[in-house]
Specification:
The chain has about 280 residues and is of the alpha/beta class. The chain folds into two domains: about 30-115, Leucine Dehydrogenase, chain A, domain 1 (Rossmann fold), CATH 3.40.50; about 140-260, NAD(P)-binding Rossmann-like Domain (Rossmann fold, 3-Layer(aba) Sandwich). It has helices spanning about 5-25, 45-60, 75-85, 105-110, 125-130, 140-150, 170-180, 195-200, 245, 260-280, and strands spanning about 5, 35-40, 60-70, 90-95, 160-165, 185, 205, 225, 230, 240, 255. The chain has a six-stranded parallel beta sheet. The protein has a three-stranded parallel beta sheet with strand order 3-2-4, sandwiched between helices. The mean pLDDT is about 95. Bound molecules: NADPH dihydro-nicotinamide-adenine-dinucleotide phosphate (NDP). NADPH dihydro-nicotinamide-adenine-dinucleotide phosphate binds near residues 187, 189, 207 and 228.
């Protein structure tokens, strides 16, 4: 039976510490503030944005939301980002994805000032991560690194297999693990014989968005399993990419869904806003 990595508890610990840091910044006259841009009416995005606003409120971070119509054009979006870049009272800018397909999200991420890029999606910050320099690291991968730290799970010399190569999870995670001296294998939908790589993993990270895809016969005894996937079943219940009940028996550590990686993502976003506020005023 594996040890369950309690992301909810760790996220709460981080949020409590951030609240104290935020109060200290306010005493110095610095009011950390996050601006969130939401384009269109995506239901899931609205829920994510709501959760971020609640976390800001709890910590004491000021929160400002910009709701843009589905049919805005690229220029209007970039103009808003540039306006927020110039505003001295705003420390972090977040563009909630997805955005409508007629808009160029990469250009929008690039427009966000690297100093306010709390999601770590600006190419300058992505480049700094690959150079192992201090930067804003994308929230989900950084949250996973914090879990390893909290549970004293060392990466050096370990075989890490990541399934999923997205820009927001898989790729930055690959960099984070390499920076910690792991040997990393990156798998995706075109990988042949996936099991060969999952069975070889000391640490397996599933970020593919396929419910219960990872079965017990795909992992070795003692594996550390990080389940990033969030899949909503027809009954409304959330499941991860890992068949938790069965894989847990073989794992040394495992994250649950919900209550694992998910809560960490928002806690790290808050961490990045406080970091931005501190750096902005140096
Ligand atoms: P994407 O859809 O952008 O990427 C999925 C990746 O998984 C792709 O690289 C894809 O390969 C790969 N993949 C899909 N099917 C297979 C397969 N059968 N075998 C091997 N690889 C496969 O997803 P995201 O990275 O945005 O998210 C992944 C999951 O994590 C989702 O469930 C999402 O909801 C969740 N998530 C959770 C977060 C959290 O806070 N817990 C935060 C962000 C995401 P290819 O590149 O070849 O298409």
């Amino acid at each position: 039976m594996g040890i369950i990595i309690d992301g909810k508890k760790l996220a709460q610990k981080i949020r409590t510490n951030l609240k104290i840091e935020c109060e200290e910044l306010k005493k110095k006259g610095i009011n950390p503030k996050l601006a969130v841009i939401l384009v269109g009416n995506d239901g899931a995005s609205k829920v994510y944005v709501k959760n971020k606003s609640i976390a800001c409120q709890e910590i004491g971070i000021e929160y400002e939301e910009y709701l843009l119509n589905e049919d805005i054009n690229q220029e209007e979006l970039i103009n808003l980002i540039e306006k927020l870049n110039k505003q001295k009272d705003i420390h972090g800018i977040l563009l909630q994805s997805p955005i409508p397909t007629h808009l160029d999200i990469n250009q929008a991420f690039e427009a966000i000032s690297p100093k306010k890029d709390v999601d770590g999606f600006n190419p300058i910050n992505v480049g700094k991560l690959s150079l192992n320099q201090d930067t804003f690291v994308s929230c989900t991968p950084y949250g996973i690194m914090k879990m390893f730290e909290e549970y004293n799970i060392k990466l050096e010399g370990k075989n890490v297999t990541i399934i999923g190569r997205s820009n927001i999870v898989g790729k930055p995670l690959l960099q984070c693990c390499i920076n910690k001296n792991a040997t990393v294998t990156m798998c995706h939908s075109k990988t042949n014989n996936l099991e060969q790589y999952t069975k070889n993993a000391d640490i397996l990270i599933a970020a593919m968005g396929k419910a219960k895809f990872i079965k017990e016969n795909m992992v070795k005894d003692g594996v550390v399993v990080i389940d990033v996937g969030i899949n909503r079943g027809q009954d409304g219940k959330l499941t991860g990419d890992v068949d938790f009940e069965n894989v847990e028996k073989k794992a040394s550590y495992i994250t649950p869904v919900p209550g694992g990686v998910g809560p960490m993502t928002i806690a790290i976003l808050m961490n990045n806003v406080i970091k931005a506020a501190k750096q902005f005023n140096i």
